Amino acid sequence: MAWKLAELHSLSHFKIEGGCQNLVSFPEEGLLPTNLNSLRISRLLNLKYLEGGALQKLSSLKTLEINGCNELNSLPEHELPFSLSSLTIRNCSLLNPKLQERRGREWIKISRIPSTHLDDEVSD
C-alpha cells in the first residue's frame, strides 16, 4: 500500500473499515505514524494476520479495537505495544473463543493489558 500515512505526524486516531477484500495482513511496517493513539480495525473479512512488528512500533498506541475480522485466528507473536491500555476484540469468530477462557497461548499475549473487552465481556 502506498498510503504514506506515516508522514501524517499529527494523525492520532486511525480507523480502517471493510471494503479491502484482498487485505490479509495489516498494518504494513512503516504504514502508520508511530505516535498514533488509537487504531480501529473493523470488518476486514479476509484479514488473517496482524503484523506484530509494525504494531509494536506504535509506541504511543493506547487503544486497539478489532471488530468483525472473522478470518483472524491469532494475535501477533511479537508483543503488542507496551503503551496499550485498552484492547477490544469483538465478533472475531476464530479468535474470540480462544480468548474467552482467559488462559492459553492467545490469552498470555494480552493478559498484561489493563482493560480488555471480549465481545460483551469486560476485564479491568
Automatic annotation (TrEMBL):
Q: Which InterPro entries match?
A: LRR_dom_sf
Tell me which Gene Ontology terms the entry assigns under biological process. Answer: defense response
Keyword field:
Plant defense
Q: Report if keyword Chaperone is assigned.
A: no
Q: In the UniProt record, does the keyword NADP occur? A: no
Superkingdom, according to UniProt? Eukaryota
Q: What is this protein called?
A: Putative leucine-rich repeat-containing protein
Gene source species: Corchorus capsularis
